[in-house]
Amino acid sequence: MRELYFAYGSNLSRRRLAARIPGARAVGAGHLDDYRLVFNKPSLDGSGKANLVPAPNQRAWGVIWSIPADTWPALDGFEPGYARTPCRVRDENGQWHSAQVYLWLARSPEQLPFASYLHHIREGALEHALPASFLEQIDRVRTRPDPGAESH
Q1: C-alpha to C-alpha distance for 67 and 27, rounded to whole angstroms
Q2: Contact at 8 Å (CB) between 64 and 4?
Q3: What DSSP character marks residue 51?
Q4: CB within 8 A of 41, min separation 6: which ones?
Q5: Alpha helix (H) residue ranges in the chain
Q6: How far apart, in Å, do the first and last CA atoms of the chain sit?
Q7: What CATH architecture applies to the domain 2-140?
Q8: Phi then psi for 118, rounded to 5 degrees?
Q9: Which of 28, 38, 82, 148 lies 20 to 30 A from 113 at CA?
Q10: What's the confidence (pLDDT) of residue 150?
Q11: What are the 10-residue block averages of pLDDT along the chain, 152 residues in total?
């Protein structure tokens, strides 16, 4: 049995999600109405991770994935602190789907993500032909240097 997962962060990337859930298959681009992308989920490494927060009249883009139902525990392990939440996501053809999405429910200030984390998001957005406006939004996000990156 398979179930749907709506990804909007680093799991947009096929390479990233395949390493975590080998049986994942992309259904296609999708969006949640009345949400927006932020980077307010604090990580143990000191960086900000992606999250969706309610935002009237806005649209949060991502990818709808079909995953084996028995792989949720493994995916949960890669998403510590997030609450797996049922959602209704609309695909690029306007069809509605019932899926699960990971949300950080605490109120936290935005934090800078690592450049390498943002790269996964951009890579996935390009792979799945997400709208140019989404890519522009990602390109405007300020990042912090990755651990071990040399500073000049």
Answers
A1: 10
A2: yes
A3: E
A4: 48, 49, 50, 51, 81, 82, 104, 108
A5: 14-20, 72-78, 115-127, 132-140
A6: 51
A7: Roll (3.10)
A8: -65, -30
A9: 28
A10: 52
A11: 97 96 96 97 94 97 98 96 97 96 95 96 97 96 82 44
Placement of tokens 């709808």 in the chain: 64
Q: What is the pTM of this model?
A: 0.93
State how far the Cα of 24 lies from the Cα of 143, in Å rounded to an integer. Answer: 28
* Identity at 104, one-letter amino acid code: W
Task: Output the pLDDT for position 48.
Answer: 96
Domain boundaries, the chain: 2-140
Return all residues near 92 (Cβ < 8 A) that are at least 6 apart: 28, 29, 30
Report the distance separating Cα 121 and Cα 28, nearest Å: 15
pLDDT of residue 149: 61
Size of the chain in residues: 152
Burial class, 57, CB count within 10 angstroms (exposed 0-12 / middle 13-18 / buried 19+): exposed
